[in-house]
Write a structure and sequence with these properties.
The protein is about 35% helix and about 20% strand. It is built from eleven helices and twelve strands. InterPro entries: AB_hydrolase_fold (IPR029058), Esterase-like (IPR000801), Mycobacterial_A85_antigen (IPR050583).
């Protein structure tokens, strides 16, 4: 009996130590970037920070990826309904997500007097906050921005405008690259937009909500309630008529393709720039406009990587054979300095 007890003590004493685990930190950051917005965007923004498994066992610093989500996807989305944490465990990065949603779906990651100053929030507040609170490698060479669909659009835009902050960009199936096969003004239901008393009146009209978010971001008019944007078109005697001046403003502000001439040099200063998209997207406008976008990049001598793969609209993002695991993380491992 005594001998058995001694053996048991030896076995217990030699048990393997607990394996360190990655973890998610939930935070709230009170922002000054949303003062005076017209749609009630809250100043308190929610954040999720992914910390690698060895973060709590040492003193080293880490590269950071800012991951931007799509329509109606808040900071919890990648971790709540996908295997994002499992995939991020394969690479040694800090990953930051934040809530960029609006009542119409998304902020489009731009400054707007209607929805709030989302660029100022990310660049002027969130990035400095993360660098101050966590052990980051706080340089552009070690900081990347990525996103999925609307988030991919935002990632490219941030890479264009803020190369001093982000040294690398990966855009997963970005949308809003430029003109597609169908004119933009034909997409929303203008009758519903002109009679709506609030975004809630759009109900389940998904397309009208999407374009409301675009118009509030890129055609904002704080003095035009209740939806606060200048309309691209209106119905007159049963005919839809386009306001060419407003349509020009929309294209110049919204389409990534239209920004290339001004920001080609900034894109070429990046350590890496990659985008991809699924050729089987049910909305072929996305595919058409992305093909045109990369041709524009070629015209202006921008260095980039692009891939059109077999897949649909965001259906190959996660999982062991998803684009995050097979392409996005290896891309950042290659281009970001550790």
């Amino acid at each position: 009996m005594i001998r058995f007890a001694l053996v048991l003590l030896v076995l217990l004493g030699s048990a393997a130590p607990a394996v360190a685990q990655s973890r998610l930190v939930s935070e709230r950051l009170v922002s000054k970037a949303f003062s005076g917005n017209r749609i009630g965007t809250a100043a308190e923004r929610r954040i999720t920070v992914y910390l690698p498994a060895d973060y709590d066992t040492g003193a080293k610093r880490y590269p950071v990826i800012y991951y931007l989500n799509g329509f109606w996807e808040d900071e919890t989305r990648p971790f709540a309904i996908t295997d994002a944490k499992t995939q991020f465990d394969k690479a040694g990065f800090i990953v930051v997500t934040a809530d960029f949603t609006t009542p119409a779906g998304t902020s489009w990651y731009v400054n707007s007097p209607v929805t709030g100053h989302w660029e100022d929030f990310l660049i002027g507040e969130l990035v400095p906050h993360i660098d101050a609170r966590y052990r980051t490698l706080a340089t552009r060479e070690s900081r990347g921005v990525a996103g999925d669909r609307v988030g991919g659009h935002g990632a490219i835009r941030f890479g264009m405008k803020y190369p001093q902050v982000f040294g690398a960009v990966y855009a997963l199936h970005p949308i809003g690259a430029g003109s597609g096969l169908v004119p933009m003004h034909t997409r929303p239901n203008w009758d519903r937009l002109t009679t709506a008393k609030s975004v809630d009146d759009l109900g389940d009209d998904f397309m009208s909500k999407i374009f409301t978010s675009i118009f509030q971001a890129h055609l904002p008019n704080p003095d035009r309630p209740p939806l606060y944007f200048d309309p691209v078109a209106e119905e007159v005697d049963g005919e839809l008529r386009v306001d060419s001046a407003v349509r020009r403003r929309l294209g110049d502000s919204f389409a990534l393709e239209s920004l290339v001439p001004a920001y080609a040099g900034n894109l070429n200063s990046l350590r890496g720039f990659k985008l991809d998209w699924g050729r089987n997207d049910a909305n072929q406008d996305h595919v058409w406009s992305l093909q045109a976008f990369v041709r524009t990049l070629d015209e202006y001598g921008v260095s980039y990587e692009a891939e059109e793969y077999r897949g649909g609209f965001g259906d190959r993002t996660w999982g062991d054979d998803g684009r995050v695991a097979t392409d996005l993380l290896p891309f950042f491992e290659r281009v970001l300095i550790r």
